[in-house]
Amino acid sequence: MPLHKFPPRVWEALKMKQGIYTRLPGHYLRSLQESRPPAAVHWKPLGVNSRVNPKTGHRERVQDVPIPVYYPPESQSGLWGGEGWIAGYRYANNDKLSNRLKKVWKPQLFNRELYSEILDHKFKITVTARTLDLVDAAYGFDFYILRTPQEDLNSKLGMDLKRAMLLRLARKDTELYPENPAKRETVFNKYKEFVIPAEEAEWVGLSLEEAVEKQRLLEKEDPEPLFKAFVQELVQELTAQKLSEPEIVEKKH
Question: Which of 138, 160, 145 is nearest to 194 (CA)?
Fold first, then answer.
């Protein structure tokens, strides 16, 4: 499909309609289409286009513009709880009559050990104070990872952990607490609401490039040596030749 005949804004949509992209699993393609904007963290959306001024009583238009947030690459290897860097300006010496200076606000980061009950492992992860509050609000690290959508996690590490948890739940892995089957069954029952088929869990959290590579490997067939094909062809020819020859039967006296 010649992309130069279409505006650049539709190139991504057209790319998904041809080649290996069309052979990706349906549940993965639906997850790409169902993506939504992340929850507001650094600003409070008003949700209205206008409101009444309490002093004048007149209806005025309001601006409901989200604050642009930059997520650095290191945020993908931690759990920042949706926080990022915000670029703006500040006044020198807190004096509005002075010059404005550029400033970047960054979240305060901590290194904490978080325990996963499903994976039975402690992870040392870079987090923010908001992440710790969200973990407490979800009543556990596993619940926080499993319940939080991909847009709000906004972390490659978080989605890798979610995929590993979902796979272990789907397969009911016996490597979890091998010496305590009762505890293993308790954990599986505790998180049974998140169980999905293993075929879907394998694709959770994969980027488009990773999904294409996974599909390519699934479709890849190992080349068959030529001598095997020749041997099979020779056997078929000999079998056909043997069947076509008349069978000589000796007469018994």
Answer: 145
